[in-house]
Amino acid sequence: MALSLPAIMRTTAARLSALYLLLFALCAVLLVFYMTSLSARMLTAQTQETINDEVLGLANAYQRGGLPVLVRVVEARSRQPGANLYLIADANGQILTGNVQSLEPGVIETEGWTTEPFSYQRFGEGELDRLRSGDQTAPSTGTGGAQSEGEKGHNAIALVLRLPNQMIMLVGRDLGEPERFRAVIRRSLMLALGMMGLGGLLIWFFVGRAALKRIDSVSEASRRIMGGDLGGRLPVTGAGDEFDRLSENLNTMLARIAMLNEGLKQVSDNIAHDLKTPLTRLRNRAEAALAGKHKTTDYRQALEGTISESDQLIKTFNAILMISRLEAGYSSETAGPVDLAATVSDVVELYEPVAEEAGVVLEATVPEAVTINGNRELIGQALSNIVDNAIKYSTGATESPKVRVTLERAASGVKLSVSDNGHGIPDDADRARATERFVRLEKSRSQPGSGLGLSLAKAIMSFHNGRLDLLPANPGLSVVMSFPARETH
To answer: Rg of the Cα trace of the chain?
Structure first.
């Protein structure tokens, strides 16, 4: 999707990139100007020190032989390659000797260091420029006369001295090297800024555009999801970057929301179908009690049956609410250290009379102590539901029905299994459906129950970061509750 420049600059990535670029450019400019100024000052100080040494040497020559020796020394030094600026003029400013042809007006009128760099021409440069331009006019040999318009000059600093005979001596140094250094720094700065700008454009073209396209794809997928397509997911490229991590987390959240919505839909459907029968029985019992004349005992039996049906409905609704709270990750129940061995012993002791009455042998294999982090009441309720189902559905399946509760440690945690030798659930799809709400695989519906026992057990195991598995026991069924070892809930 093509974006205009204002639209691009509204993005956080573009704003941050522009701010970083501006900050870097500002710091680079300040650093370069600071280094240039510092280097120029250092070169100027070095130049002044060199000039002082030259002046000291010339002063010694003047003391040895006067003006003739000084002139010879100045002429000799003027002819050396890369020589400093040397000039000797009379009291009127007329140049007598040296390698300077013309000076900026007013330079030799003040004794001491020149306050500002001045322009000058070396001896012979003006004539060479005129020959190149075809002008045969004789050059001016005036003392400190101004340079003619269009002549090319140099900048320098110098020390001006008055000799005892009122003659003027100038010793200076050309500033071409500091100026060239400054020009190199400026060109380097412009080149660096240009490369930085080009690099920024290339990074935006190859990286920024890709990031913006991914953001656009995420936004488009989000709009489809908000439009009602809960099955849609955010795109994941597999690059493993922050966009992929964000998309994966949001996809996990969407899958969780979809599962909760599906559970809500199933609850609504199940309530409409499975709770219709007990409500119908309540109405029929009340209608039968009101029809005709009955004894007091008949009315009492009708009311007791109504209360019993109502209690069963309340239990069903409580189980539904508990499952919903646990699946949503919210519960008022607290977690703490739980001795699973003691919990298993209590549940087995509670159901021994029930198993004995049903003709089922209930056994338990429990170690001395196995402690996990969880809620004792919830774990006890889940185990009770599983044991109750095992006793009910093993009755009549064999001559010697048996239910065994086994608690053991595993490499990944603790496993609590309840196995029976009944008919079991041979089909894998039926075993997967058995933990859904209101699902009862028994066709005859001869056993009491609402189909919420295993659903509640599964929700309790999810609450404890565990897992509930239904496995074939050959014969029978084995329900395995897998707990993480001492995991903080």
So the answer is: 51
pLDDT of residue 3: 52
pLDDT at 165: 82
Q: Helix, strand, coil shares of the chain as percentages rounded to 5?
A: 55, 15, 30
**pTM for this predicted structure:** 0.47
* Chain centre distance of CA 320: 40
CATH of the structural domain 230-330, one choice from 1.10.287, 1.20.120, 1.20.1070, 1.20.58: 1.10.287
List CB contacts of 18: < 8 A, sequence separation 6 or more: 9
User: Which contiguous run of DSSP H or E holds residue 408?
Assistant: strand 402-410
| Polymer length of the chain | 489
pLDDT tens per residue across span 85-97: 888 888 888 888 8
CB atoms within 10 A of CB 377: 13
Q: Are strands 361-365 and 402-410 parallel, antiparallel or unpaired?
A: parallel
Q: Is 474 left (phi over 0), alpha (psi -120 to 50) or beta?
A: left
Contacts of 245 (CB under 8 A, 6+ apart): none
> Which run of H or of E encompasses 373?
strand 371-374
CATH number given to 10-127+153-189: 3.30.450
Contact, 328 vs 463, CB < 8 A?
A: no
Q: What phi-psi label fits residue 156: left (phi over 0), alpha (psi between -120 and 50 degrees) or beta?
A: beta
